[in-house]
Write a structure and sequence with these properties.
Layout: H1 3-13, E1 21-26, E2 40-51, E3 58-73, E4 78-85, E5 88-89, E6 98-99, H2 105-124, H3 150-153
Parallel strand pairs: 1-4
Antiparallel strand pairs: 2-3, 3-4, 5-6
Helix pairs in contact: 1-2
Bound molecules: zinc ion (2 copies).
């Protein structure tokens, strides 16, 4: 599990959240576009690598979907972020499990930076001022193995850009 890496990086970005106690965790039950009550969603994608646990083959994918869901408890001055990282399966193994993506630090950083900005706007009603557009997703139109992509199977992959 690479959660520690996400936690460490989120902690750095979350300094901007007034020193409030925000935590991040993974949650595969998140449904894109259907946030739980009083939660907000932020959907993003980035390049990630995968490794098949059966044959050890590795592959990269430029469009790996991450759905963040976040909730602020005003009274407690704390908040929770849940992240669902959509998985992919090996295309050469017949029956195989969906593998979790491995994002590099740079891509995690870009996603978390933008996430924290969303939290500031949604939960703290801040005007972050810089309307400057973030670099669009690195959604290069390379080959995409839709039939092996969990997000494609759920119909939520290509709509997010
Ligand atoms: Zn395989
Ligand atoms: Zn897909």
């Amino acid at each position: 599990m690479s959660l520690q890496k996400w936690e460490r990086m989120f902690e750095q970005k979350a300094v901007k959240l007034h020193g409030h106690n925000w935590t991040i965790m993974f949650d595969d039950s998140i449904v894109p576009h259907k946030p739980a009550g009083e939660w907000f969603q932020y959907i993003r994608g980035a390049f990630a690598k995968f490794r098949c646990s059966a044959c050890n083959r590795t592959w990269g994918s430029s469009r790996v979907l991450v759905v963040f869901e976040f909730h602020y408890q005003r009274g407690a001055k704390s908040g929770t972020v849940k992240a669902r990282r959509f998985r992919q399966e090996c295309k050469t193994c017949e029956e195989t499990e969906m593998e979790e993506p491995q994002f590099d630090s740079e891509n995690i950083g870009v996603m978390l930076e933008k996430l924290v900005e969303k939290i500031r706007i949604r939960c703290y009603k801040e005007k972050t001022g810089n309307r400057k557009r973030f670099r669009p997703l690195d959604w290069s139109e390379g080959p995409h193995e839709s039939s092996h992509c969990e997000a494609c199977k759920k119909g939520v992959c290509r709509e997010t850009n």
